[in-house]
Amino acid sequence: MSDFNSILISGSSGLLGTSLADAMRRRGVEVRRLVRREVRYADEYEWDPYESRIDDRAMKGVDVVVNLSGANIGEKRWTGERKQILYDSRVVTTRFLAELMAKSEEPPAVFVSQSAVGIYGDRGDEILTEDSTLGPADDFLANLTIAWEAAAEPARAAGVRVVHPRTGLVMADDAPLLDKLIPLFRAGIGGPIGNGQQWWSWVDIADVVGATLFLIDSDESGPFNLTAPNPVRQKEFAEILASTLNRPSAIPVPSFAMKLALGAEKARGIGLSSTRALPERLVSAGYGFKNTDLATSLRSILSE
Q: Residue 184 and residue 193: Cα distance in Å, rounded?
C-alpha cells in the first residue's frame, strides 16, 4: 500500500466515485470531492470546469486525483446536442484538471483518468488488449474515448503518473445497464439483443475498485483494460441473467427494433457493438481479480 494521504475525486456522487471514496476512507485516506452544485459537506469543493473555476483548496497538497466525470452514455438519444454534452463532460473536465496539475508547483503524484473499452470500437471476435489499434474514424464512442485519454496529456507532460482504466460494463447494484435490463427480464420479456453474438466485456464493481486501488498503489501508467478476464457473448449474458432471475431468455430484441428505439448510431454503439477486451496488462502487473464469474457477480448483486 502506498503512502498516499489524500485523494481528490470528480464524479464522486456516481456509482464508481461513491464506491472508491468509501474504500479510500476505510484506508484512512482523506477524501476530497469535487461538486458542481453548492457545497453541503466538509469534504466537498466546488468547481465548474466549463468556466475554468475551482476552489483553490481542492488540489492543494493532494496526492492522487481521480477523474470520473462524464454524462451517462446510455441516457437520451444521441442528437448533436447530446453528443456534445457527452464529449464536453469527459474531455473538457479532464483537460481542465490536467492543465491545473501542469501549472501546479506541487502536482499530485498520480492522475487516474477514467476511460472505457469503447475506445476499440466494434471489432467482432477480435481479442483486444492494450496494444490493439484503437477504434475506426467513423465510430463516435471510439473517437470520444480517444479524445478523453488525450485530454490528460498536460498532466503526463508535467511528470504526473497518468493511468487510464478502460472500464467495461460494470456489474453492480444501480449500474445503468442492469437498471434497464433487470426489469425486462423479471417481467419475462428479456432476451438476446440482435443476433446475440457480440462480445460484452463486463467487470464486477469490486474489481473496478480493487484494480483502481491496485493501480494507484503501483508504479504503473498508461491504459489498462478494466474488464473481467472472460468476456461473454451477449446471448450468454442474457441467458445467465435470466437464469439468475429464474426467468426465460426467450424474447430476442431484433437489431432493427434497437435502432428504432435508440437511433441507429447509438444502438450500434451500446448494444450491438462487439468488444472482446482482455485485461492483459492488469494480469501481467499482478492484479488478482475478485470475481471472474458473471453468474456469481449477478447473484451477489440481486441478493442485496
A: 13
Calculate Rg over the CA atoms of the chain: 19
Residue-wise pLDDT tens digits, 24-38: 999 999 999 999 999
Q: What whole-number distance in Å separates Cα of residue 86 and Cα of residue 90?
A: 7
Identify the H or E element spanning 8.
strand 6-10
Q: For 163, what's the count of Cα atoms within 13 Å in the CB-facing half-sphere?
A: 27
Q: Which residue is listed with cell 471472474?
A: 292
Q: Of 225, 224, 250, nearest to 169 (Cα)? A: 225
Q: Report the alpha-carbon distance of residue 229 to residue 232 in Å, rounded.
A: 10
The string over 114-150, giving b where at least 16 C-beta atoms fall within 10 Å of a residue's C-beta and e elsewhere, is bbbbbbbbbbeeeebebebebbeeebbbbbbbbebbe
What is the rounded average pLDDT of the residues 8-18?
94
Q: Please compute the mean of the pLDDT values over residues 92-105 and round it to a whole number.
A: 97
| Beta strands 53-54; 44-48: pairing state | antiparallel
User: Cα-flanking dihedrals φ and ψ of residue 132, to 5°?
Assistant: -70, 155
